[in-house]
Amino acid sequence: MKKLFAVGVVCGALMSAPALAAQDENIDFGSATCGELLSAADTAGADDMAGMMLWLDGYLSGVSGDTVLNWSNLNTFVDQLGSYCQSHKSARLLDAARKVGLGQ
């Protein structure tokens, strides 16, 4: 349950950040920062949050060539991304995702 909540918090932040976009608008992940993700963590719904984390996982899969959706790894990634972003608020979100998810 704790990990599901973590997925929700991180995904929610992505969906609700004004700098990232409203739900019915496109989101430019390339310009989003960790700080924007964290500042919006309180306002999105669980479905929106899960969708955003799945998008990030798909992005990393495209970068790495990994075609398996591993739920345990996704939960770990979400936890680690949240921790990384807490310490690196000015980091670009995709750079943070690559560092955490791929070790780059």
Explain what you see.
This protein is mainly α and about 100 residues long. It has one domain. Helix content is about 65%, strand content about 0%. α3 crosses α5 (about 95-100). The termini are far apart.
Structural descriptors:
104 residues; 5 helices
Compose a concise summary of this entry.
This protein has helices at residues 2-16, 34-39, 46-64, 71-87, 93-102. By secondary structure, it is an all-alpha fold.
Query: How many beta-strand elements?
Result: 0
Q: Give the strand content.
A: under 5%
Query: How would you classify the helix and strand content by structural class?
Result: mainly alpha
The number of distinct structural domains comes to 1
Head-to-tail CA distance between termini:
29 Å
Radius of gyration: 12 Å
Query: What is the 3D shape?
Result: globular
List segments where confidence is low: pLDDT < 50 over at least 5 consecutive residues. 14-19
Estimate the helix proportion, in percent.
55-70%
Profile the largest sheet: none
Secondary-structure element order, N to C: HHHHH
Mean pLDDT comes to 79
Number of helical regions: 5
